[in-house]
From TrEMBL:
Protein name in UniProt: DUF2505 domain-containing protein
One protein family per Pfam: DUF2505
InterPro entries: DUF2505
């Protein structure tokens, strides 16, 4: 199942990238959207960056579509890799979201690009796949709202973060 989402920010790509790679921002974001234990690490290598977060969902908050497949909590590992900036400040990256113990994964691309209004847009384009014979598409449809909710939350938290610093 294809998942596409755009997050518009009232800041230039360099400022948004600085936010995305700020350990304190990532801690706020992951801490806000998590329902259980979590950790996040930002590693910058020159112009590039890797952000890895782990979130644990306790069984009582696991979506119904997954409950039959698990006996304990689910750990979500999200890895974002950002490349160097282009001359216009835009960046490309990748995203990989894996759920432990459940054959569901989101893989895709990330783009940070200037917007005509002087802000920028962060775009997520991914494929949500559930490798479950006969029921895969049903599980993908059940997981898609949670994926969108996490993306929407990142956009809201990011907009608030930038507004607090302008």
């Amino acid at each position: 199942m294809r998942v596409t989402a755009d997050m518009h920010y009232r800041a230039d790509p360099a400022s948004v990238f600085a936010m995305l790679t700020d350990q304190a921002f990532q801690e706020r974001k992951v801490g806000t959207i998590s329902k259980g234990a979590w950790d996040v690490r930002v590693q910058q290598e020159g112009e590039s960056a890797v952000i890895v977060s782990h979130r644990t969902l306790p069984p009582e908050v696991v979506p119904d579509a997954f409950r039959a497949m698990i006996s304990t909590s689910i750990t979500i590992t999200q890895t974002e890799k950002w490349g160097p900036a282009a001359p216009d400040g835009s960046r490309n990256g990748s995203i990989d979201v894996e759920l432990s113990g459940v054959p569901v994964r989101l893989t895709g691309t990330l783009t940070l690009a200037p917007a005509p209004d002087g802000g920028c847009v962060e775009q997520v384009v991914g494929e949500l796949k559930a490798k479950i014979p006969l029921f895969g598409s049903k599980v993908e449809k059940a997981a898609e709202p949670a994926v969108r909710a996490a993306i929407d939350a990142e956009g809201r938290i990011g907009a608030q973060w930038l507004a607090e610093r302008s």
